[in-house]
Amino acid sequence: MQVLQIILQILLGITSLLLTLLILMHKGRGGGLSDMFGGGMSSGLASSGVAERNLNRFTIILGLTWGVVIIALGLIMRFSGTGES
């Protein structure tokens, strides 16, 4: 069980980093922090191309994977007794 916990912790770190990078790659929709950094200029030209749809799909899949890993780690820690003081 300890090996599974280590694998899930490594997977959590990798998915967290990748999820952050994927979220930062999205185009700004305007009206938020993206306007502050110059992203609002291209908001009128934003189109929903194939690359953007694929980026959305990858982000959703990675986000769901991240959530499942967190739930699995929580269950392992609770039922293995390693989370108790």
List the defining traits of the structure above.
single chain, mainly alpha, 3 helices, 85 residues
Please, could you describe this protein's structure?
Helix 1 runs antiparallel to helix 3. With 85 residues, the protein is mainly α. The model has no long low-confidence stretch (mean pLDDT 83). It is elongated. Helix content is 69%, strand content 0%. It has 3 helices and no strands.
Task: Summarize, please.
By secondary structure, the protein is mostly helical. Helix content is 69%, strand content 0%. It contains 3 helices and no strands.
- Beta content: under 5%
Shape descriptor reads elongated
Order of helices and strands: HHH
- What is the count of DSSP helices, taking H or I runs of 4+ residues? 3
> What is the mean predicted local confidence, pLDDT?
83
What would you report as the Rg, rounded to the nearest angstrom? Answer: 18 Å
Secondary structural class: mainly alpha
- Largest beta sheet, briefly? none
Helical coverage, percent range:
55-70%
Low-pLDDT ranges: none
Distance separating the two termini? 19 Å
User: What's the β-strand tally?
Assistant: 0
Quaternary state of the chains: single chain
